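SEQUENCE WITH STRUCTURE:
===
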Amino acid sequence: MDEVFKIVPKVRELFFYIKKEMDEQIKLKVENVTPNYGFILFKLRQAEENHEDVYQKDLEFCIKVNKSTISEMLDNMEKNDLIKRVPSKLDSRKKIIVLTPRGREVDSKVSDTIKNYDKSLKEKLTQEELEQFFKIINKLQG
């Protein structure tokens, strides 16, 4: 029965291992982009593809940071020409966060890096192990 209680620490350990590896890969391949910036770019690209507006509050919720932290991150991203803030047509007090051409380019590099890392993880497992892995993950998620 003790083995059951080792699931949480092992999952946590795996999460941090993968996060650390991905963060290092992103930093190596894409200059001046933190993993959180990469995630924001990804979210903005998804919204763009779905013709949805994204506001600062949406990003606060997505990456679980407070207002001042996301504001500072967006300021830096704007200075690095990754995003721009444009007034909402519905409420001029609100700013819509959109990708710049450079932001799209960087997002593409980050996405490629993540896809390559994902591929390298999959290569460590057989097809049967992959199927079992996803079966277990799905079962644990409810």
Notes: The mean pLDDT is 90.
